[in-house]
Amino acid sequence: MGTLRKANAYSKRTVVPFTRVSKKRQKSYIKVVPPQKIVKFEMGKPSMFNDGKLPHILKVVSTEKVQVRHNALEACRQYINKRLDEDLGGQYFFKVVPFPHHIQRENKMLTGAGADRMQTGMQLSFGKSIGKAAILKPGKELFIFALPNEKAVQTTRELIRQIDSKLPGGIRTDYTNLSVKKQ
Description:
By secondary structure, this protein is of the alpha+beta class. It has a single domain, classed as CATH 3.90.1170.10. It contains four helices and eight strands; from the N terminus they run E-H-E-E-H-E-E-E-E-H-E-H. The chain has a five-stranded antiparallel beta sheet with strand order 1-4-7-2-8. Strands 3-6-5 form a three-stranded antiparallel beta sheet. Helix 2 packs antiparallel against helix 3.
């Protein structure tokens, strides 16, 4: 596989994911679906979260309508999970919320001398699938963290600030404390 195109090569205006993949090959618009790069969607200790031992909840929320590529989500997931595991000793729950369904395509163009005699231009320009993306609307969650204490919340906020450059569009962090609501 070649190099990735810039993210701005894909429109931010797409509303419906283009996922027409049929069991019958002839009815499929997209013949080959790229493999999913996100390996895990839930990390840490979900049992602690279910038992109520992780009362501090941080949610990373999108503030714009954007497409987030699966390799960007996986890069953020790996970095955050590694750092949280080192800093908190496994006492956390981390979830990647969006599932990339939207299939991105590319109409390959040749460059160099004689390239105009070898390519079809905009005839048959549907393109080949090169990756997947999750389409996010404003207010949609990207990541959810359940943490044991305030110190862990501050550590996680710092990690979120560090991954901000890996994600397209703007993000904000919402915080809730479940232990205060119970009292």
